[in-house]
């Protein structure tokens, strides 16, 4: 908690944004954080609520009242110690987490939760500025070797925990840079990649080895999965990895995008969002692409109303799109949730991102009927999207008669979520899959995260399906403990 009466004395303060015209000129982060005094006031609002629901609302179970109180007391160095005790990468979550902890905050009953995310953001930024984030090199090495497949948040969290436990850890990443979805899925204006780079340096100092451009296991040569970003230059078989290492942890994410099999799907100009977003991140990193997929001067349709769709909107606007329209299949949710009914759970409500504010038309309760092909010089290319409005009756989606219309489109981006991991890769390890195509493994304290194959574990979206970065970090930490227990018979790593 902060000040005992702070929640009655102070109002919630929000982080600011740079002006739209300014931030659209580049791909740099544009959030303006609160200053020390403002963060102290924000932390002072953390009340003595008795049962801190925020702890449970946070997937990594951050000890939020404790670090709030430390910020209120201006003991920032102790605050980062508390924050790092549960979260390996608050520099990521302080920027891109949707903050379910704030939805669970007791003050949210009265519409003004503590700005927990901004406090977390401020703590880690100050920690880096003051040199408080240091490698934690293990005093003793175990002699055990662990392979981590995938360098997203789950893989990185697991690798760091295992290295600190004294194991020799090697992280395999199929793309040319470390970071997984953080690197090539999230735009730079939301997460500058320097935050990943300095964590990599920290982990290397802790003994973690990174092998880039290495594909582990089998990979599809055709179909939708073949379009997943894959810039590998070397391949290692699953069997070889299992032979060379004492344990293998797969944290390869849920990369198979949901497709939209309607007439015209094969037209030029219809792409998965994850064909579009990684290319811009690669260009921002200084690389060159012969045929970059660009929204410049185009009428862009983004199908999917989630975070990935929002990222497509922001990137399209920075590339100079002529117009951007975002489709959402579900009806428009209320601007404000019914707090007595939803608190402390994550509510369904209208969420407007910074990308929407930069320029975007949003269409709700709309379904795609057809991608309209062009004629003449545009033959084989998409020139429009035929849609129909829908409504829900008796739990079923039905079309609204006479609501069909055609939106002009030169580029269509499918951002409807992810359905499962790459099946071929998981099957090459010989593991059992669940009914949704994810790797089958539980989360129990004993035997959790272990697959049907001895010595092979899974964590993150590859196990639970598409989710949040903060959930990936949690699973990476817990899976690391499970691997440590398997190798050593016991573990002092936290769950």
Q: How would you describe the overall organization of this protein?
A:
- The protein contains 20 helices and 20 strands.
- The chain has 495 residues and is an alpha/beta fold.
- The chain has 3 domains: 6-129, Fumarate Reductase Iron-sulfur Protein, Chain B, domain 2; 145-256 and 419-488, 3-Layer(bba) Sandwich (FAD/NAD(P)-binding domain), CATH 3.50.50.60; 259-416, FAD/NAD(P)-binding domain (3-Layer(bba) Sandwich).
- The strands form 6 sheets. Strands 5-4-3-8-20 form a 5-stranded parallel β-sheet, sandwiched between helices. The protein has a 5-stranded parallel β-sheet with strand order 10-18-11-12-13. Strands 14, 15, 16 and 17 form a 4-stranded antiparallel β-sheet that branches.
- Strand 15 and strand 16 form a beta hairpin.
- Helix 3 crosses helix 5, helix 3 (36-44) crosses helix 9 and helix 10 (153-164) packs parallel to helix 20.
- The longest helix has 20 residues, at 469-488.
- The chain is globular and about 70 Å long.
- The two termini are 24 Å apart.
In the CATH classification, which architecture of the largest domain applies? 3-Layer(bba) Sandwich
Quote the average pLDDT: 96
CATH class category name of the largest domain? Alpha Beta
| SS class | alpha/beta
Question: Shape, please?
Answer: globular
What about the largest sheet? 5 strands, parallel
CATH homology group of the largest domain: FAD/NAD(P)-binding domain
Radius of gyration computed on alpha carbons: 23 Å
Number of domains: 3
Q: Low-confidence parts, pLDDT < 50 over ≥5 residues?
A: none
CATH topology of the largest domain: FAD/NAD(P)-binding domain
Give the fraction of residues assigned to helices.
25-40%
- For the biggest β-sheet, the strand order reads 5-4-3-8-20
Number of helices: 20
Alpha-carbon distance between the two ends = 24 Å
The proportion of strand residues reads 15-25%
How many E-type strands? 20
């Amino acid at each position: 908690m902060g000040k005992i009466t702070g929640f009655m004395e102070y109002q919630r303060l929000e982080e600011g944004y740079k002006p739209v015209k300014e931030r659209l000129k580049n791909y740099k982060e544009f959030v303006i954080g609160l200053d020390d005094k403002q963060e102290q006031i924000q932390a002072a609002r953390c009340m003595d609520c008795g049962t801190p629901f925020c702890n449970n609302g946070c997937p990594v179970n951050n000890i939020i009242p404790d670090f709030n109180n430390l910020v209120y007391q201006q003991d920032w160095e102790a605050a980062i110690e508390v924050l790092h005790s549960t979260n390996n990468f608050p520099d990521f979550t302080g920027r891109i987490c949707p903050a379910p902890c704030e939805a669970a905050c007791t003050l949210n009953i009265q519409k003004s939760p503590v700005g927990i995310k901004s406090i977390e953001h401020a703590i880690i930024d100050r920690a880096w500025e003051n040199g408080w984030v240091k490698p934690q090199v293990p005093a003793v090495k175990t002699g055990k070797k662990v392979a981590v497949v995938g360098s997203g948040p789950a893989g990185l969290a697991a690798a760091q925990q295992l290295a600190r436990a004294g194991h020799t850890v090697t992280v395999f990443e199929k793309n040319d840079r470390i970071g997984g979805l953080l690197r090539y899925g999230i735009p730079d204006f939301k997460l500058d990649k320097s935050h990943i780079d300095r964590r990599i340096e920290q982990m290397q100092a802790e003994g973690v080895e990174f092998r880039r451009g290495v594909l582990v296991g089998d990979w599809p040569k055709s179909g939708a999965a073949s379009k997943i970003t894959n810039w590998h230059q070397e391949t290692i078989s699953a069997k070889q990895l299992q032979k060379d290492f004492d344990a293998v942890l797969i944290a390869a994410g849920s990369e198979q995008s949901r497709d939209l099999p309607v007439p015209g799907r094969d037209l030029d100009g219809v792409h998965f969002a994850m064909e579009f977003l990684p290319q811009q991140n690669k260009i921002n990193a200084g690389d060159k692409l012969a045929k970059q997929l660009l929204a410049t001067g185009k009428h862009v349709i983004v199908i999917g109303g989630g975070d990935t769709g929002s990222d497509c909107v922001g990137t399209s606007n920075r590339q100079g799109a002529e117009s951007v329209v975002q489709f959402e299949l579900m009806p428009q949710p209320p601007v404000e949730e019914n707090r007595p009914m939803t608190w402390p759970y994550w509510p369904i409500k209208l969420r407007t991102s910074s990308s929407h504010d930069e320029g975007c038309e949003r269409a709700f309760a709309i379904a795609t009927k057809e991608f309209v092909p062009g004629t003449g010089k545009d033959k084989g290319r998409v020139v429009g999207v035929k849609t129909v409005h829908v409504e829900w009756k008796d739990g079923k989606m039905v079309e609204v008669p006479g609501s069909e219309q055609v939106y002009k489109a030169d580029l269509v981006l499918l951002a409807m979520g992810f359905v499962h991991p790459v099946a071929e890769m998981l099957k090459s390890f010989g593991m059992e899959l669940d009914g949704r195509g994810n790797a089958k493994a539980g989360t129990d304290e004993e035997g959790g995260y272990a697959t049907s194959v001895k010595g092979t574990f899974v964590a993150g979206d590859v196990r639970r399906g598409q989710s949040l970065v903060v959930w990936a970090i949690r699973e990476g930490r817990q899976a690391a403990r499970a691997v440590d227990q398997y190798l050593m018979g016991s573990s002092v790593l936290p769950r």
